[in-house]
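Example record

Each entry pairs one chain with its bound ligand, phenylalanine.
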Amino acid sequence: MTRILIKTNRIISAVLSKYKFSTAAKSVASVQIKGKEFVADDYTNVTPKIISYLDKNLHLQKNNPLSIVRQRIVNYFYSSFTHRGHPAFSVYDNLPPIVTTKQNFEDLLIPADHPSRAKSDCYYINRDTLLRAHMTAHQSELLRSGLDNFLMIGDVYRRDEIDSTHFPVFHQVDAVRSQRQEELFPDKPELQIFEPTFDKTNPHTNHINDPMKQSCHTLEATKLMETQLKTHLIGLTQALFGEDIKYRWVDAYFPFTHPSWELEIFYENDWMEVLGCGIVRNEILVNAGPSNTIAYAFGLGLERLAMALYKIPDIRLMWSTDSGFLTQFENVDLNASITYKPVSSYPQCTNDMSFWLPPTYTIDTFISNDFYDLVRDIGGDIIEQVKLKDKFVHPKSKKHSLCYSIVYRHLERTLTQTEVNQVHKEIEKAVVDAYGVVIR
Ligand code: PHE
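Structure tokens for the complex follow.
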């Protein structure tokens, strides 16, 4: 469970997987992505399959569990931090996933030989361009544009095996919160963010030898930021999982923060890492613009939270287009406790039913719920879902028509189309008898 975080212990996996992937990339002259052509080189290792995930934006699909968790996190930050009645955080959830190595690594002080840059771990388009490996890749550009408090939400790409908890594409929420002296220590002009000995004109003299803090920062500023950071993230965790959630902080290392921590929650009899965070390295802030602030940053993985919150047993389900999965998350109250109910692995079969209503009904007075019950009465357990697909009034005859989709699925075996058609016919007959409709 160490994968979501870009940190040093990835050395081991990078060394191990060096051989596994060294022959994987076929040589191509260029790569086409979203109508744009990129020159390929010896780093190119994106595959057409991976490129096909680029437009999916699961975190923005309203009936996807990732989107529900995203909205809950955004709401937490919106309601916890306001500035003159407006949310203090701005949210970026549509940043393009193709980034430069500068954005993904250099801007974040990730050294040239750092294992997280390995070809075996990232999807490179070429030597200079890759699919972002973390949302932190956008931190510097947003700071540079003048923002101080923001969330970056999107899909990230890391080469990995595929199993029930790993998938090469997943989603992160990353954040930065910065404060100036007067915000961090209101009415306490005697307290400072920076050590008096620190030469702000020469930010690269900052070092991280002391495990407690960066050499440029005062201990008071660091400690206060640490307390705020931890309080906010525990608040978020409790807002998601409830007050009783068991958690612990673990010291961590990231090239872009110091000090750094990880938060683990106790889930299904084990500790599960849910986020990484820390105090942003002052060099990053100075390179991007602000030289008078201190900031904290964190990054969390949406899949793990969604899987734990809704008891979703397999990460691949997030990509399901199966309505049996998606309807469980459709139009739900964001804070409702939802427990995912496994859907059958046998295929669905969808048949539509359209009919003209008799004059006693209009498209607005016909009660869909009555129809649903009738469908279930006849079809029984093989009815997975019934939904209104279309309402229609004929312009000339003024006759009213409705169309419903019925999704059939057996829990233990594959239904044949003939079998489904037969049940479908029986349902048609029953609606004709019950309501006097005319099947179209
Ligand atoms: N970018 C880190 C990761 O993906 C998470 C992180 C973000 C850690 C911000 C600290 C600060 O692993």
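The first helix runs from residue 10 to 21.
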